[in-house]
Amino acid sequence: xxxxxxxxxxxxAASPAPAPAPAPEGPGVVTSVESIxxxxxxxxxxxxxxxxxxxxxxxxxxxxxxxxxKVRAALVMLAxxxxxHTVPDKGTFVCQPTVEEARxxxxxRRLIESEIVRLFVARAQRADFDRLRQxxxxxxxxxxxxxxxxxxxxxxxxxxxxxxxxxxxTVLTEIVTELVARSSLIAMLYQSHNDAHCATDEHEQFLRxxxxxxxxxxxxxxMDHLTRxxxxxxxxxxxxxxxxxxxxxxxx
Length: 252
Ligand SMILES: [Zn+2]
Description:
Blueprint: H1 33-45, H2 57-64, H3 68-80, E1 84-87, E2 91-94, H4 99-123, H5 126-143, H6 150-167, H7 170-190, H8 199-211, H9 215-231, H10 246-251
Antiparallel strand pairs: 1-2
Zinc ion binds at residues 156, 159-160, 199, 203, 225.
């Protein structure tokens, strides 16, 4: 995974990624493949480069003063993180999930996660609650000062994966893992800056309801939590003309 170097997405203590090198003065002095990938990832998650933007290899090579081979290697790293995708014979573009895809992912999550909550409440032991509470504490300490971005979304999404894991249902856990990864990307790209979703408090409240064995209240709370998360996304900006010139965006 690419370690983003922006202040908004700095790796928290929980991240296994190595500490990033000191931030260079600007894109012009970034030369390693990893640094180029970090710089581009930061520009994408900070939304200086809009979803759907064509990442022209030649222009990027000029910005970073490197060969197209290095640019291509950096783009491959970003593709692994699903920040960009390559279209054969066309080029590499910043991922742009559609409104329909976003809505479908959240409706699928509500469907699957209501069942996960039921399974969890039915079989959760003290140790399961302890593990999830530990996750919530980690979210709270790691997310301090972390407004928006990939790391934040991943941490918050991990709670839902951890919850699924406690049910012992392997297939549901696999499905949730994929849905969470896709919705984290969507949240990262489209979450409104004015309405950052305060998810950690809600994870805590959800666990309280589960501990009271109040299954229906816990399911309803989880459904509302996912609906609020979906509601905090500004899907109107999907496909909207927010295109900044690529080179200018990277020099910002
Ligand atoms: Zn959540």
